[in-house]
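Students often ask what a holo structure prediction actually looks like on paper. The answer is less mysterious than it sounds. You provide the chain, you provide the ligand, and the output is a string of discrete structure tokens encoding the 3D arrangement of the protein together with 3-isopropylmalic acid.
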Amino acid sequence: MTKNVLVLPGDGIGPEIVAQAVRVLDAVNEQFSLNIQHESALVGGSAYDETGSPLPEATLAKAKAADAILLGAVGGPKWDKLDMSVRPEKGLLGLRSNLELFSNLRPAILYPQLADASSLKPEIVAGLDILIVRELTGGIYFGQPRGIRILENGEREGFNTYVYNESEIRRIGRSAFEAARQRGKRVCSIDKSNVLEVTVLWKEVMEEVAKEYPDVELTHMLVDNAAMQLVRAPKQFDVMVTGNMFGDILSDAAAMLTGSIGMLPSASLNAEGRGMYEPCHGSAPDIAGKGIANPLATILSVAMMLRYSLDAKDAADAIEAAVSKVLDLGLRTADIASEGCETVSTQAMGDAVLAAL
Amino acid sequence: MTKNVLVLPGDGIGPEIVAQAVRVLDAVNEQFSLNIQHESALVGGSAYDETGSPLPEATLAKAKAADAILLGAVGGPKWDKLDMSVRPEKGLLGLRSNLELFSNLRPAILYPQLADASSLKPEIVAGLDILIVRELTGGIYFGQPRGIRILENGEREGFNTYVYNESEIRRIGRSAFEAARQRGKRVCSIDKSNVLEVTVLWKEVMEEVAKEYPDVELTHMLVDNAAMQLVRAPKQFDVMVTGNMFGDILSDAAAMLTGSIGMLPSASLNAEGRGMYEPCHGSAPDIAGKGIANPLATILSVAMMLRYSLDAKDAADAIEAAVSKVLDLGLRTADIASEGCETVSTQAMGDAVLAAL
Ligand SMILES: CC(C)[C@H](C(=O)O)[C@@H](O)C(=O)O
Ligand SMILES: CC(C)[C@H](C(=O)O)[C@@H](O)C(=O)O
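The corresponding structure tokens follow.
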């Protein structure tokens, strides 16, 4: 059976890094006879420029039909002044929400070859391997009512709503516990239950979910403390589960602990395990078009896609091994450049991974 | 004229650390003939235990009458199961809100003597000196509506409201720009304006405020990026200004960059400059009563109080110099213990600061 992958290069460095990832996908497709087909579509600022919408109907239709989606990145200063409703980010948020990709898996892993890149002391981060499970289709990102209104005294007031119901919390809780089962069997749920009622419910439902997984340990931590603990002693965590907004902040902090966010892939899954795969980093408009961006996070996103959505574990393993080998060979893009290593271009990094495959 | 200070020891290690801070306050009071009087009152869990309320009427009345307030810390597992409305944190939030202490100044400073304590590489944090200005009486902490309700399908739903009006944003903006004028003249405003309307307004009003301060530079950063940049290169910041929730998370992360959160004071000020002063760290119930807590953040909070609310700059300078001298002498409490230094008790640290005065 043919599997269909939709490729969404997006904005900024998106097209460059996705190009290398697609070469890798093509290579394993042939090598492992995976019968994968792919086509491309527009999303984000480039889609807005061409069609007036950051998520054109055609793209959404293809996304719904696909078995998996590979995304580069969206956004850039060029579109910063646009109305919120047509900004590039709405393309990304629209995909997440329309496809119900509620479970966002963001690993923060320190590659031993890149230990130096971290701003933290080696002993604090050596061997780091955390998985942040972030709720992606609810919370304050999507809560209603929202907007900016004029008050009676003529002043403006901005407002958003942070809201979760039980089933939303339960399903992301189960994602986290399932993931923990495959790993260190520990889930730390992050809330602000000493202040926010919505996270009091979050904490309660996590306790209920924990009963379904007696083999997995559940602890709770306040979000401010979690931000501190990530800086102080990140290796204390196995799986962290949290809402959309806290997850946005904590997963970026966690990724940066490794010093090499250019290496980190992510998966956003729906209830059937179909998903969208993208690097953790953004569209980096400042280096777009220069051919120096790191394609490895996107290449590793292909590996995640093969593993989680395309039932091709061997091909995923092969890609991850190839990336590791390339690092062993001392090849680095500029973002992870290091003394004694060779700094290479986006394309040359793609070449090297292909050669290692 | 007599100045009145209200002392609120609170819970956990609160009473121990406040006791040392009050000894220091008494000493400078005499030394500099400051004419300061102080009395104590109950707040937090200990107030709940005694009166059924985390913020008894009597405490609030005294707080309103005081020229300044010195707080230890509130909260602990003992009160975790209480209804949100009477939890210890409500005592703290009630003080902030009733006294309109909207401007929370949280310095993150690395003491050169404690450079080793950080989990970050020395070159990343040496000389670190950031000021986080956090809005403290609005945003999602106080927004209405809020609660947990039962939906038609029988499910529970939790909800909170993230709301700011123009004047709330303008006054905290001015606080930040005023503070920046006394420092590096750079303000970085933190928002999530690519997703949340309330922070679109935040960003706009910050731009308006910036026009009043042509000598101060304003930049903007998304909160997820800010969390990353704090880990990657914290010295890029001078003053950061943000809302209540983001400020809670980012200020704790920033404090932890120094590795010695037991050293960091904070001020919460109202429009007249009256304020509440407290250590950045919490009530640390795990070490309460052991006499090992670090009193220096609370002692330094006294210095902030003298400077900002009691017009006693010399006394503030004297306390800060005394703390620095004690660190030079190699005295450390357990939280900042270091090889080659002497680990001392809470009381002994208080003694040492008094001796150095
Ligand atoms: C681009 C933006 C809307 C997005 C988010 O906030 O979710 C990004 O920061 C991310 O984390 O994927
Ligand atoms: C105790 C809690 C309510 C409080 C807050 O969230 O503001 C604390 O974390 C702080 O930062 O002062």
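The longest helix of chain B spans residues 14-31.
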